[in-house]
């Protein structure tokens, strides 16, 4: 097999994505959803490249991916980070902002491309937040909560006009987490 053969490029893209996602400590099910690889193949990739002195030491997450959305809106700092991540989904073309603040899957995106774009968004998020409150798995949950289940949406702030992640079924005061944090800081100074 010559790596330069065009017929192998799709397989190499999947393999590179699996390596990238393992570095972000993604669960096997999440990697499988993006690459189409079997669980056994993902475990073999991990065993070959990451366990026992491989590329780097990576902790493997077990169990199902997180599904609750309360983590994204239960405090202004976490809501702010979720909002940054949602904006990065749009900037990295993993999603498109539709009507009424609803995020939609980017048109014509296959699962490998989506996985690459989500990794790109998460890596940019990590650059902006060196000590992030949200792991890759929580970013995966955020994306699906915005796009698929629509439990979250991007609301509009009356104070600054910006958008922020909001629970679709909760009372919304139309106040973004940035304005909330700023108001709290002003209140503590007086």
Q: Can you give me a brief rundown of this structure?
A:
With 190 residues, this protein is mostly helical. Helix content is 51%, strand content 8%. The protein is elongated.
Structure, explained:
The protein is mainly alpha-helical and 190 residues long. The protein has two domains: 64 residues, no CATH class; 120 residues, no CATH class. The protein has eight helices and four strands, in the order αααααββααββα. The strands form two sheets. Strands 1-2 form a two-stranded antiparallel sheet. α2 crosses α6 and α5 runs antiparallel to α8. The chain is elongated and about 60 Å long. The model has no long low-confidence stretch (mean pLDDT 90).
Widest sheet: strand order?
1-2
End-to-end Cα distance, whole Å, is 70 Å
Low-pLDDT runs of 5+ residues are: none
Helix content: 40-55%
- How many domains comprise the coordinates? 2
Please tell me the overall pLDDT. Answer: 90
Question: H/E series, N to C?
Answer: HHHHHEEHHEEH
What characterizes the major β-sheet?
A: 2 strands, antiparallel
* CA-atom Rg in angstroms: 18 Å
Q: Based on Cα principal axes, name the global outline.
A: elongated
Strand content: 5-15%
Annotation field: number of helices? 8
Per DSSP E runs of 2 or more residues, the count of β-strands stands at 4
Structural class label? mainly alpha
């Amino acid at each position: 097999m010559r790596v330069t053969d065009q017929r192998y490029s799709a397989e190499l893209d999947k393999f590179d994505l699996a390596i990238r996602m393992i570095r972000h400590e993604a669960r096997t099910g999440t990697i499988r959803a993006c690459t189409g690889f079997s669980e056994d193949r993902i475990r073999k990739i991990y065993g070959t490249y990451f366990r026992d002195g491989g590329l780097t030491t990576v902790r493997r997450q077990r169990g199902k991916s997180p599904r609750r959305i309360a983590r994204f809106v239960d405090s202004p700092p976490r809501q702010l980070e979720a909002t940054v991540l949602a904006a990065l989904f749009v900037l990295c073309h993993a999603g498109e902002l539709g009507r009424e603040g609803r995020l939609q899957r980017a048109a014509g995106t296959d699962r490998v491309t989506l996985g690459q774009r989500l990794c790109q968004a998460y890596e940019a998020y990590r650059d902006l937040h060196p000590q992030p409150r949200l792991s890759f798995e929580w970013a995966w949950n955020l994306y699906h909560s915005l796009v698929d289940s629509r439990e979250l949406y991007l609301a509009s702030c009356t104070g600054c006009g910006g958008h922020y992640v909001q629970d679709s079924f909760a009372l919304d005061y139309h106040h973004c987490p940035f304005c909330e944090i700023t108001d709290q800081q002003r209140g503590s100074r007086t």
